[in-house]
Amino acid sequence: MQYRRVYVPGGTYFFTVNLADRSQTLLVDHIDDLRDAVQNVLTSHPFCIDVMVVLPDHLHAIWTLPEGDANYPMRWSLIKAGFSRCIPADEQRSKSRIAKGERGIWQRRYWEHLIRDEQDYMNHVNYIHYNQVKHGHVARVADWPYSTFHQAVKNGQYPPDWSEEPIFQVNANKYE
Asked: Which residues of the chain have pLDDT under 70?
């Protein structure tokens, strides 16, 4: 199947990337491995992580790619592979995954959205920063440790007690 993706060199994108088994908590259980995988890709193929939140079974991020570069699929592939190599190989795998030499940790696909303008950007930033509350992991945004929200507070972009539901409303299944 051919998926239609938008490739804009130097573009800013919103992503949702999920574990294959949404009942797992691998992303927070192995947060240092995920951070290392991301850092390795940042070093070898630079890009800017504008905003990110890591939840137990999925993550959301906004990236800005370098001018002239639109290769976010390669970066996600390297991050997923780097993280997967750190996790014990005890997950169930389908015949298809076995035949392709794939682990069963990640969903094969991910959601990507090209950010269109400043309002679209801010809507997605707020969505990401509020996501841990939306999913019931914490009552206050500031209580979740795996979010760039803390850096945004340090930079004066949010008050420390910000936890209002963002204006950004989406079909929940679209971004999960």
From this structure: 1-3, 98, 164-176
Give me the catalytic one of 110, 127, 130, 146. 146
Which segments of the chain are extended strands (E)? 12-18, 48-54, 58-64, 111-114
Supply the DSSP symbol for 93.
-
In single-letter form, the type of residue at position 3 comes to: Y
Note whether 167 and 126 are within 8 A (CB).
yes
pTM, to two decimals: 0.88
Residue 148 DSSP code:
T
- Helical (H) or strand (E) element with 84: helix 72-84
H-type alpha helices, 85-169: 95-99, 118-134, 149-154
Q: What is the pLDDT of residue 90?
A: 80
Give the separation between CA 102 and CA 108, rounded to whole angstroms: 9
* Model pLDDT, residue 124: 95
19 CA to centre of own chain? 11
72 part of the active site: no
> Distance (Å, rounded) from C-alpha 124 to C-alpha 91?
32
Separation of alpha carbons 128 and 149, rounded Å:
9
